[in-house]
């Protein structure tokens, strides 16, 4: 979602409305005025100072229970979630925290480090003690003091008692920061650089051998971990068995790139919401990526009651908003007003000056002309694809075959980059490896999927998977929800993009299947549908496509200046191809994609930043679109358009941010007269859907119209 549209929904805070706060002397860098304002706002949100209007009104989801000889002890119980606290819950929020939603590149990391230094503590034990006392008395004579509505509005008393005792057993800890794996090293380096030595102790909770002892975790001021680790330590079925991160009541939890939890039914979203903490923060420049429902997951994590309850959210906000009723939008705006701070690079201070002055960014679209040979290849592929699409239209089954149509479009889009990419996925391949795979599966038993502890897929399911692949039905990846890119088949018979799968693991050697949670070894993955990504010897038969030729000319022109460039593509197979001409022309490069583990990624970023001889970074959009700081470069090339333009924007903001001292050049490549050119029109239509301007029926109709437009 573009910044302008996002700002219309969530609103902007004018800088001149905010006071500034001097950071503690343990912060070893100078904050800009707007960053001091953020620090002041965050500190006061945590204190509850900004909620004075609601401070004396008990939240409707909470009940107060008095106990003790003189009934001078009070505990508040949430009838929806079962949470308990001794702190008075206001009508606006329970947990103290909010959403720092400043646009990308404004320095949310350094603002958060300033907050850590301004107030760092171990989790408050008073709540735990009171909860335990309440749990012990809840089945005694004090029951007569409870509200008569309690039994109707909560879970049974023994369950509540059990929950309270469990929460009372949690050990008070410091700050937990959760981020994508790519950013783990960057967070550690930023804290070590900007916090005075000795002011914060840091522990990186990552890797197969990480300790899960609560006392060990709780003794550090800052614990850094990843969303992958968080998910792996969470069990939705039995919350009492959750150990590690879940055995600590954190003083503060920070979600970096918090839109990672936007899908409310995902494992990672539920895992984040289940953590115990006194203060909670979401850092994201894109709090809404696809639709308004993204906000629901953030509010659930933040414990902004009652909006963590899906029934109420859907009834009062989501449904009215989708139906064009302004009351839904106004309600969500009123909720966000007190808990969200958002400024953009164009925001101004009280003198009317921009809050952040960066070197200019020149954004261009380069329209490429196909060669005659490429055009013949593309048109032949397009005609074949259009015949299949027209058949679906004639049968009235377009949306029923949505995944198959995405596969047709994928091949057309890849053809615009280089015909070799399409040839790597040819329909005429022999599926001998699939037949071997099917036999291995169908043997059954522990050899089939790597162990007796794993769930063995049924023979019928295996036959269906292999049959679909032999028919060329690619489907879509369950992680990125795009047509497969370099698909692999797991021993449990699930297909995923190779990069999506490997980047979801916390280890480069093994991890869990995101679909069924079986343990998978990397060596057991099988490339689908062939052992080779390309049908031909690409080195021996190398030919430049028009898009590659223009890119190489651009890079050659930059060689003499020594300025660094980042080349983005969403297909790792295209990065494979680009390595050939770059090597032949002695254009030194490094590469970052989802197959690299944390240490390898850090090494690549360091090499690119510090080695003056390395001029090019090849990077996949999935691996490089999040959080990392690449201001060593001042040129970005987006080789293929993405369905969601916000993803492209996130990628280029890696270089146009604080620390950039040179004019930034951003060039997007579009091949004329192809599906790429028509995708630009589709992106504009998608924004209307994202903004809620269309009803559900109109969305279905619009989707059909978009597909017809792409196959025109």
TrEMBL record:
Q: Tell me the ranges covered by the Helicase ATP-binding domain, including all copies.
A: 89-305
SMART domains recorded for this chain? DEXDc (SM00487), HELICc (SM00490), RING (SM00184)
The family database entries (PROSITE patterns) matched by this protein are listed as:
HELICASE_ATP_BIND_1, HELICASE_CTER, ZF_RING_1, ZF_RING_2
List this protein's GO terms for biological process: chromatin organization; DNA repair
Keywords assigned by UniProt? ATP-binding, Chromatin regulator, DNA damage, DNA repair, Helicase, Hydrolase, Metal-binding, Nucleotide-binding, Nucleus, Zinc, Zinc-finger
The source's domain of life comes to Eukaryota
Pfam families in the cross-refs: Helicase_C, SNF2-rel_dom, zf-C3HC4
For this UniProt entry, what's an example GO CC term? nucleus
Where the record annotates domain RING-type, the positions are 477-517
Task: State the Gene Ontology terms under molecular function.
Answer: ATP binding; ATP-dependent activity, acting on DNA; helicase activity; hydrolase activity; zinc ion binding
Q: Which family does it belong to?
A: Belongs to the SNF2/RAD54 helicase family. RAD16 subfamily.
Q: What is this protein called?
A: SWI/SNF-related matrix-associated actin-dependent regulator of chromatin subfamily A member 3-like 2
Q: Which organism is it from?
A: Iris pallida
Tell me the organism's taxonomic lineage. Eukaryota, Viridiplantae, Streptophyta, Embryophyta, Tracheophyta
């Amino acid at each position: 979602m573009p910044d302008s549209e996002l700002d219309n929904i969530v609103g902007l805070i004018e800088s001149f409305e905010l006071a500034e706060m001097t950071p503690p002397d343990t912060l070893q860098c100078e904050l800009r005025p707007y960053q001091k304002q953020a620090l002041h706002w965050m500190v006061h949100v945590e204190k509850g100072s900004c909620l004075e209007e609601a401070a004396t009104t008990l939240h409707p989801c909470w009940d107060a229970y008095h106990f003790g000889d003189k009934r001078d002890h009070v505990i508040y119980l949430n009838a929806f979630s079962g949470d308990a606290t001794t702190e008075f819950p206001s009508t606006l929020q329970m947990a103290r925290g909010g959403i720092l939603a400043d646009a990308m590149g404004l320095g949310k990391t350094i603002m958060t480090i300033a907050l850590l230094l301004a107030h760092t503590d171990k989790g408050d034990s008073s709540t735990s003690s009171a909860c335990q006392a309440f749990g012990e008395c809840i089945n005694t004579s004090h029951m007569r003091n409870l509200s008569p509505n309690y039994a109707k509005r909560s879970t049974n008393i023994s369950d509540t008692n059990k929950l309270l005792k469990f929460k009372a057993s949690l050990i008070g800890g410091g700050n937990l920061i959760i981020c994508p794996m790519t950013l783990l090293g960057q967070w550690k380096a930023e804290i070590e650089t900007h916090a005075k030595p000795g002011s914060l102790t840091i522990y990186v909770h990552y890797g197969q051998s990480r300790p899960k002892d609560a006392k060990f975790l709780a003794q550090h001021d800052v614990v850094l971990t990843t969303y992958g680790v968080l998910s792996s330590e969470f069990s939705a079925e039995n919350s009492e068995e959750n150990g590690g991160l879940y055995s600590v009541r954190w003083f503060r939890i920070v979600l970096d790139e918090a839109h990672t939890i936007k899908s409310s039914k995902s494992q990672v979203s539920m895992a984040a919401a289940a953590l115990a903490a006194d203060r909670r923060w979401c850092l994201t420049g894109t709090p809404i990526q696809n639709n308004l429902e993204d906000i629901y997951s953030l509010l659930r994590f933040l414990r902004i009651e009652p909006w963590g309850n899906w029934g109420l959210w859907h009834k009062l906000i989501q449904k009215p908003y989708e139906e064009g009723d302004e009351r839904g939008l106004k309600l969500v705006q009123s909720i966000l007003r007190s808990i969200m701070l958002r400024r953009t690079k164009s925001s101004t201070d009280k003198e009317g000056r921009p809050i952040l002055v960066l070197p200019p960014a020149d954004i261009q679209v380069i329209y490429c002309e196909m060669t005659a040979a490429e055009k013949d290849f593309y048109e032949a592929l397009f005609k074949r694809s259009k015949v299949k699409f027209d058949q679906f239209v004639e049968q009235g089954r377009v949306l029923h075959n949505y995944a198959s149509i995405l596969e047709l479009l994928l091949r057309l889009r890849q053809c615009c980059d280089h015909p070799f990419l399409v040839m790597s996925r040819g329909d005429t391949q022999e599926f001998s490896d699939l037949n071997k795979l099917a036999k291995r599966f169908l043997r059954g038993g522990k050899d089939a999927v790597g162990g007796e502890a794993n769930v063995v897929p049924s023979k019928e399911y295996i036959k269906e998977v292999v049959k679909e692949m032999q028919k060329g039905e690619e489907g879509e990846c369950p992680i990125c929800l795009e047509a497969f890119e370099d698909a692999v088949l797991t021993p449990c018979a699930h297909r995923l993009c190779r990069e999506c799968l490997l980047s979801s693991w916390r280890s480069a050697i093994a991890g869990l299947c995101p679909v069924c949670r079986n343990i998978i070894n990397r060596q057991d993955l099988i490339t689908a549908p062939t052992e080779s990504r390309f049908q031909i010897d690409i080195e021996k038969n190398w030919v430049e496509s028009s898009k590659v030729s223009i890119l190489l000319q651009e890079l050659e022109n930059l060689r003499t200046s020594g300025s660094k460039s980042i080349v983005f593509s969403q297909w790792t197979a295209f990065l494979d191809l680009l390595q050939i001409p770059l090597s032949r022309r002695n254009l030194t490069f490094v590469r970052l994609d989802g197959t690299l583990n944390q240490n390898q990624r850090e090494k690549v970023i360091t090499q690119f930043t510090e080695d003056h001889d390395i001029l090019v970074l090849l990077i996949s959009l999935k691996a490089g679109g999040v959080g990392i700081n690449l201001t060593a470069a001042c040129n970005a090339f987006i080789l293929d358009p993405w369905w969601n333009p916000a993803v492209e924007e996130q990628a280029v903001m890696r270089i146009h941010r604080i620390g950039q001292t040179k004019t930034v050049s951003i060039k997007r490549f579009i091949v004329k007269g192809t599906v790429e050119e028509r995708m630009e029109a589709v992106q504009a239509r998608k924004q209307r859907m994202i903004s809620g301007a269309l009803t559900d029926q109109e969305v279905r109709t619009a989707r059909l119209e978009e597909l017809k437009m792409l196959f025109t």
